[in-house]
């Protein structure tokens, strides 16, 4: 009994490690957070896809004539910029689909999968030994050499991904290097925002938009340290507030302000016929010069300008993914589903079946088979 109790205590410790930096919310708040994160992903992804389509639209037919008015390089690299923005927007769209599909499969709102629980179970020596023996026997009988090599490569990539991007990985939310990685991320984002604010002060004629950009930049630089200091006793809450705030500040600077500038031109331009609705627009010096300066600010003037425009979008995406990993539901119950036992129920079965450590039992075999089926899905 003492060995059984010790084994149960050791096997329970890894499961208790996962929620160490998880901020549990009530069902109502968790649902609100899920909707907020999904809509945030959708808004950022839609904006980036529209930006990509705009870059490609400006390279078609007579549009390069207008581009040459504000860009000394013309449409050089415009298609490349559009492809990159489109890829990032598509990644955000896939993230939205993943959250929705994952919630439908689980029959409840979810922000992250249970792969970390699977990896925790796999780290247990008895389960790993059972799966290793079963895998070796199956490989000898049914797998070819090519299949074994592919399986080995896939397992190596999975382990590498786990070491880098898992919760305890280098870029994970529970990483010992999280503060260093986050500081470098903030340095890149603040530098990009500073460069864009500087260009706005030179090119943007609207003083109110300049004030908004500078205010967002200053607020972002000072409040990050303040939030970390006031919430230092609750690291998970501090990280959630900091990342959410940074994402909203970045969204305001790289999405809201450009939209406020560009919407007026969309309304004044005939997209189908490719000319301004007002024929005198190009001959009025004030709106013409304003258009040249503002479009020079909105569209990338070179690789450096393009990079500083892209970095805040990548930071927003990483922040939303990290926030999803820090939030948890506070009313988790052990309820077996129709397709098989849940991970919580398998953990309970494993604890009950570990009374005989030296010899495998029928329940151990059933648990190993169930985990193998989940890993193969």
From TrEMBL:
Name the keywords, alphabetized: Membrane, Transmembrane, Transmembrane helix
Membrane-spanning residues: 28-58, 78-102, 209-231, 243-266
User: Could you tell me what this protein is called?
Assistant: Uncharacterized protein
Q: Which organism is it from?
A: Phytophthora rubi
